Amino acid sequence: MSAIESVLQEKRVFPPQAKASAGAAISGMEAYKALVAEAESDYEGFWARIAREMLSWHKPFSKVLDESKAPFYTWFEDGELNASYNCLDRHVEAGRGNDNAIIFEADDGTVTNVTYQDLLDRVSRLANALKKRGVKKGDRVVIYLPMSVEGVVAMQACVRIGATHSVVFGGFSSKSLNERLVDVGAVALITADEQMRGGKALPLKSIADDALAAGGCEKVKDVIVYQRTGGKVAWTEGRDLWLHEIVENESNQCEPEWVSAEHPLFILYTSGSTGKPKGVQHSTAGTLLWAAQTMKWTFDMKPGDIFWCTADIGWITGHSYIAYGPLAIGATQVVFEGVPTFPHAGRFWEMIDRHKVTIFYTAPTAIRSLIKASEADAKVHPKSFDLSTLRILGTVGEPINPEAWMWYHENVGRGQCPIVDTWWQTETGGHMITPLPGATPLVPGSCTLPLPGIMAAVVDETGQDVPNGQGGILVVKRPWPSMLRNVWGDPKRYQTSYFPEELGGKLYLAGDGAVRDKETGYFTIMGRIDDVLNVSGHRLGTMEIESALVSNPMVAEAAVVGRPDDTTGEAVVAFVVLKRARPEGDEAKQIATELRNWVGKEIGPIAKPKDIRFGENLPKTRSGKIMRRLLRSLAKGEEITQDVSTLENPAILDQLGEAR
Ligand code: WT7
């Protein structure tokens, strides 16, 4: 039975427990329904109310939603604010400067506490240093840093002076970094000498040097380097600067740059089904608002809670639920540099125990791999740690299978913590469809119901609603404040990717398939409907990996598909035709390793194919079109039952199927 089938047959229901509902921001289904009704009856009024409640405005907005240039929507456009002021100053001004903002735990276990006052000082110093280097409002700054306090400081310092940051995950290659630097038109790059992961120092600065040397990013004047390990790095005089040196003599006072609500807060690249990764452009007010509001609704975050989101700041989850959401509401959060398996696979549970974490947010892939580890070694099983402080658990990034959900619920949550399975995307800025911990009866594997104000629906290929129980295309019917505003530098692509004409041009196309339960209306996500793969919760375009493969001089042709994987959700399978004869045996193994490393260098290790199969050709129709659905079956090791009569070269199927 596939994961989706098992969710659709899932009959277990976990009603909210009394202690989760007591005092919760949304304390029951009645409260939820009241908010949904409020949003339905006065959509703009609903959003205006929470925007006034959640954010501190330098200049109040008078307009709410402007649809006159649809699908280029604006929200609260004439309002002015600063995201960094909202995340830092206002808490310090309220007398909360000594509260912990960040409990940072390094790879080696060293713990550092950073108060709101400390964080504000550090952000202001770096902001002043950036200004001195000529970085100004509207400029783009690329951040290529490990998980660190400095990462959060860098993001906040940019937005303090009105610069727009674009964070590139530290696992991306020099080529990927170069493409992003060029596309976004960066004027500065903030990186580190090295990063520490699992006890090992890995390069960053040298990769950044390669990225800059690859050309096209001559606008980058300054490369600011955070000294993490003290490892040796090459130095370009006049360009490279040590972070600790440039902030040393800066003032800890920096007046925030007040920007329009619509000013770009950040640009974050993500994979699409075609072409290069898209620069997803987010607005200041809308994205900050929803990050803050969902901290309250989805995580029911209250004073005294310790929040821990295990994502990296290189992904959207680390933006909304590390760098912005928790700080906007003045929370205390754990920020972790390392990996879940070092020095042992109980690290997460040990850290929850050590820091008395109350709300824990991670990815299904991490849970699945830790299940395996704790089955093999009782010492790293969650039961070997005191997890009694936990009250809410969350998952994000990919579907969670009911078995993993149950394990998480019983072993990490002791049967007492609601699990919020949050469906959302880089483009949505924050949670969209998710249970509410004090209200929603939970069904393992279902992300349940949309948040108030989010008009999610399932439609057919023409944009018409499908009845519950019938699968279809997941869309959002009305614009919402934290939605992306554009694809950086490519408005046409924004329009065609997200508001396609076939659906009428007004529905936001998420790119996922979904089905709603007949009785409850609960949503179950059925995975991407485009050529995007989800490996360990990371998005990869099949075309990007194919382009990387064919850029290798040995490769004539390549096709990439996904295959279900017990741990990573999906795994990358590549079908490759070489320019030379089809390799076999050891030669095939050796070339596969070479190509895997090649993809790692071209894109990043996350994109490396798990399985590479060589053929003399690919299955094609007589008109030359690659039949991907056949490749998907071959990748899974399935018997080919489809009609292959249109295939030019049916014999190829045996070759590609056997190649395992
Ligand atoms: C895609 C978005 C959400 C932030 C991290 C990933 C998949 C995400 C869930 C979930 C089932 C999910 C979807 C979506 N996805 N959350 N709870 N259940 N699928 O952001 O890299 O932009 O990827 O991740 O396929 O479209 P992203």
UniProtKB/TrEMBL annotation:
The modification N6-acetyllysine is found at K625. Acetylated. Deacetylation by the SIR2-homolog deacetylase activates the enzyme. ATP binds at G397, E398, P399, D421, T422, W423, W424, Q425, T426, D512, R528, R539. One of its GO terms (cellular component) is cytosol. It comes from the Bacteria. GO terms for biological process: acetyl-CoA biosynthetic process from acetate. Keywords: Acetylation, ATP-binding, Ligase, Magnesium, Metal-binding, Nucleotide-binding. CoA binds at R197, G198, G199, K200, T317, S536. Its cofactor is Mg(2+). GO terms for molecular function: acetate-CoA ligase activity; AMP binding; ATP binding; metal ion binding. InterPro entries: Ac_CoA_lig (IPR011904), ACAS_N (IPR032387), AMP-bd_C (IPR025110), AMP-bd_C_sf (IPR045851), AMP-binding_CS (IPR020845), AMP-dep_synth/lig_dom (IPR000873), ANL_N_sf (IPR042099). Catalyzes the conversion of acetate into acetyl-CoA (AcCoA), an essential intermediate at the junction of anabolic and catabolic pathways. AcsA undergoes a two-step reaction. In the first half reaction, AcsA combines acetate with ATP to form acetyl-adenylate (AcAMP) intermediate. In the second half reaction, it can then transfer the acetyl group from AcAMP to the sulfhydryl group of CoA, forming the product AcCoA. Belongs to the ATP-dependent AMP-binding enzyme family. This is Acetyl-coenzyme A synthetase.
